[in-house]
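Support request, please re-run this one:
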Amino acid sequence: MPTIDFENDSPSPSEMIDKGALVWFDSGLGFPIPGEVVDFSPTHNVISIRSSYGETTQIYRLDSLQGVLLRHQHEDADGLDDMIQLSGLNEASLLWNLKVRYNQNQIYSYIGSILVAVNPYKMFDIYGLDMVKLYEGKTIGTLPPHLFAIANAAYCTMTRDGEDQVIVISGESGAGKTESTKLVMQYLAAVNKASSNLITEQILEASPLLESFGNAKTVRNDNSSRFGKYVDVYFKSGIITGAQTKEYLLEKSRIVKLAAGERNYHVFYEMLAGLSPEQREKYGLQSVDKYFYLNQGGDTVIHGKSDKEDFHSLLDALEVLGFSAEEQDTIFKILASVLHLGNIYFNKTQIHQQEGVHVGSESEVKWASHLLGLNEKGLLQALTVKITEARNERVFTSFNIDQALDTRDAIAKALYARLFYWLVKKINAITGKGDKRTSIAVLDIFGFEDFEHNSFEQLCINYANEAMQFYFNKHIFQLEQQEYAFEKIDWQLIEFKDNQPCIDLIAKKPIGILHILDDESNFPKATDISFLEKCHFNHSTTDLYSRPRMSAPEFAVKHYAGGVWYDVEGFLDKNRDTLRLEVVELLINSKNSLISKQFKKWRDEVMNKMATKPNGRYVTLKPRTPTVAARFHESLLKLIDTMSKCNPWFVRCIKPNAEKAPMQFDMAIVLDQLKYSGMLETIRIRKLGYPIRFKFSHFVDRYRILLHKPPKSKKHAREMTRKILKKYKGGAHDQYKIGETKVFMRERLEHSLEKDRNRKLRKVAIILQKYTRGYLARRDFREKKGAAMMIQANYRGHLQRQRYLAMREGFRKAQAQYRMHRTRKHYRRVLEERRKRELVQRAEKAAEIQRAKYSAQMEVENRAARAVAGVNLLEIPAELAFIYSKLDEWQPLHNERNIVKVPNEVSQLPARYRWPQDVNAFAFTKFSNVYFKGHEFRMVRDPIKTPFLPKQNDVDVQDSLMIFKLILRFMNDVTLTDKKEKILADYIIQKGLMNENLRDEIYVQTCNQTWRNDHERNNERGWYLIASCLSCFPPSATLYKYLLKYVSDHAYDGYKQFCQNKLLQCQFVEPQLSRTYPPCLLEWKTNRNRGRMALEAVFADEQRVNGHAESWTTGETFACNLMKLRGVDEANGWTVSLMDGGSSYEIGGMDYVLDLISEMEIAPAFPVCKSYFLVSSDAKTVSSQKRLMTNTPHDPNIVNFIDVNFDDWETEADNRETKNVQNSNRFVQSSQQTRTRREQQDTSEGSDFGLADTRLNERYFGGKLSGSKLNARYSSDTKLHKSVEDERVADQIRLTQQEARKLTERYHLETGVEATGTSRRLVEQHRDTQSEIMERFPGKLGLSRYTKLNNRYKIPKPDLDRESRLNARYVLAEDDLVDEKIREHRAEKARKEAKQTTEYSNQTDFQRSSQHQKHQHQHQQHQQQQQRPPQQQQQQKNHRAETPRFS
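Re-run finished. Output below.
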């Protein structure tokens, strides 16, 4: 192959050199420098050159013209972007062009489409999104050189031609290959058109992850890639769909051994700096300087790198890539275990008279086995003992120290390597899911290395660089020149440095260095020295191979970048890279699934294969295990083959200095790299060759737009191509060649064609835009014009309407002025007349107001008088009257002093009720319209005649009417004392407790009386009663939501929330589970103040706690809340008991707590429900207070009987019928027993009052009573009868309605109530009737006719002896004459009242006023009479009684 001398590319120096000429010369510095010729002697070839390089100007004298080259004036000014344009093509001009641009912070330069990047060792702000937009879609050469231009060219070529691309980034270690790879990936991600950026972010995050695990600090580079990386990014229609990463030759020896000034892989230092103290304690980690695998290199800090921040970036990358928390934990466990293994050391010992070892750091073994999930004894045995098998026997051999250390390091390297390979596969599984149409691959291969100590890894790395250089040469020189020859283009071949012999020396079979190494690795007794001797034997005569002068264990290979000496120590072990089978089995048995699976897979790859003999027996064959060198050689060949199928783009990275100093350009170092990289030859072939080539059809299709009249078809594409290039003004003949199937162009012509093509396309696009914009503008103009005309028309119409309205308004004002003048006269005349009428009306109105005030005042007085009189005259039941008679002698057990305010906070009971969602639909007016029986929903002041709600029997009807009277008295009677007030309310509530049918009636009556009640005190007392009822029994399910709605909307001040809470608490309480007793005094006061209640509880350890209580709080709930306050979570099943002196009162878990207290406060003779509390007492400790409870529900000696009817299992209808029959029988039986007892007692003597000594009279005058339940209910001093039969009979005794009415009349007469109106007439009528009766039996009864007590009872249908005075007194009730007279008298009184009412309505105002004054006078006389002495009042009463009023 002919050779061209590059130095002769310029004219001969001897012919052109003259004084003042600019030259390049070698000053002895190792690189050419610029200078100016001062003197030149052609005869003696002596030249003097002045150079200003450095700090001073010096004159150099040279005795030879060798190395002196002419220099052009413009070459050292600013430098050229594309070094193909250099006029003088030599190493000096190339070197100084790079230096000039580097000093100007221009780190990128072109060699055609090849990018030369000089590492600045600092980051420039030229990689943002603005630069991405700037270079996107631009042709190379139109903008300054940039890495983004190469990435953009590859992307555009891929999308245009649909061909796979590869960007080869090569250079020495420390030249910036890794950073360039990351920048290319960032550009591809930025121009990605995908709507979702998840896959793009995952691809980008894979780079820092692999960088942490695969990069380390070396002597030449702080971030050196210790493995090869080939990233293939998949595209579909210009959108990134995925990526695959292939790794090559991880440097595992770095894990266990470091040179001075170097670091281990970054991830170890990042983990120790970024883990929290708790995490480091979890993995048993310490500081960096404590670990042997990390502190061998000395300094562990890299200037400008933050390991802690990089660790957080690593964690972010793991999260983005989808690594689970368990997987991340396993990663850190493996890394920590590697560090712990490195700290294991051994001590010599004698075992069976042989040298052995034992572990000196058992703690590290424990940590390693714990983190890896291994058996501690198994790990100890693997580190200290070798197991061999011979004739089915296992032989254990102890290691020496070197063998133990090698085993330790082998385990550490295997763990880290399997972890790294798993990470790469995991990343590929995550990012490689997309479809592949086309791809752009980025190759980041380790750079050429020549250290002070080079080993097996450096040989493999330099072999890979030789292969990359061969690929570069093949693509740039061989393939290109072969294609020129195939296309029959005139071309003078260019010779280049072919490195094929060096590749053959290293990898050619059968005597290549790597193949010799593989052969030796499969011989058990082979050593590193035997391998070296075979290399000397086979290659000692090769020019590229060198032997050492001394007997050192090394050899040298002359690479394309220079000679490198390799130390063969450890070559065989590193190439084998195997673990003993027992160690692999130990790791397979790890409890960690990830570790177990990885080593099981590894074992399967290298396990012994089985072969069969013809006789069917199996025999074990030990094949040649694939070595590291063999696997690396195979993967490298696959890489070259893959890259050969892609269109390549080259980035040659240059390292400017060896100190890694920013912006320092070492001329000698850069010149060496330019030489061995073939940069000069590359520029030469790019300058003289035609790197751009198109098929004719493609060229015509792309550039026919440059013709004046572009052809419509692509027929005769060759001639059309020639025509385009001939007519194109920039198509000089030296810029292109026409081949057989393609057209070849130089890059300058291609740039020019692309520029003109873009200009034409832009011009056409502008024309299209012009017409489109014109059309849009005309359409917009027409729309605006129509809108303007519409606005003008409406505006003109608006102006005309405004003028018309103004004229019409003027006419209206003129008319108004005239009418105003005319009306003003009429107004003055009318005003005078109006003043006169107003004076008259004012006088009449003042008189009317006076009359109205007087009438209103009289009405208020009359209404107040009627209201008070009506309430005082309302009858009360005899039972309640009897209770009132006992109140003076009764002292309550509790009073206001027993209720105190709790000073501390009380823990609230849990609220377990919920608010009904549809309560707003239940207005109380709906309930009244549907369920009220003949009543309107409004407050009334007089007693009702029928109940509000339907009733099933007459007893409930009479009780309902009686309850309404009691409610009227409770709400209106201001004369009630505190005792009577509470007893009255308790009596009403007790009626509801005893009769379930009366509960809704009570609620309805109280709601009716509080509806629109303007009297504040009256209204408050009504709500007070409602709250007390809600404390004891719930409303029915029908009334519940209506009552809740009424309370929520109309409750009195403070009772809204209070009554709501009580309603919600009893929401799910069954009617049968109501309270047993009325509210206690604590509840009574709480209901009045609308507050909360608390009870003091005492535990067994004498600790006292205040517990929150509600009216519906059960014993279990109260006890559970208190137990939880004491720290007992499971407190179900507890209850409380009441300790009163020596007695204990216990309730069940479902009984109510406050019923215990209410039971103590029951008044004498008060009717109560039956309770079943458990009572126990100690007779020795019974206090005097207990004696007060005798014969009361709170009596500890009382015996409770529970009647159980086993017929309850019958149907509900049968039960109800049976119960009615039993009640009827009991009533008849009770009546007969009562009549019998009375007949037996009639013969007894009378008392001081003139009465017989009967039990009935004794009940009212304090005599001795029988042991019946009825008498026990009215007396607090008599013990209850213990007989079950007497108890059942006594419970059946009830007063008839006639007896109750007469008791009520007696109560009114005895209390001396005097009333006016109808009530007074009823009293007088009763007295008249009594007088008439007494006159019929003068002297026979022996009683005073004026005593009301003698008029008390009348037994129906008596069969008594009329001679007895006592019996005669009862016979009066059955006298028909008396009844007839009474009826006649009442009828006559009714006729008179009707007549008086008619006459009153016909009276004039004056007559009414006179009558009113008369009534007032009578009222004053009555008050004067009340003030008289008691004797005069009694005389007057006797006089009135003796004067009969019957007509």
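The two ends are 167 Å apart (CA to CA). The first helix runs from residue 13 to 16.
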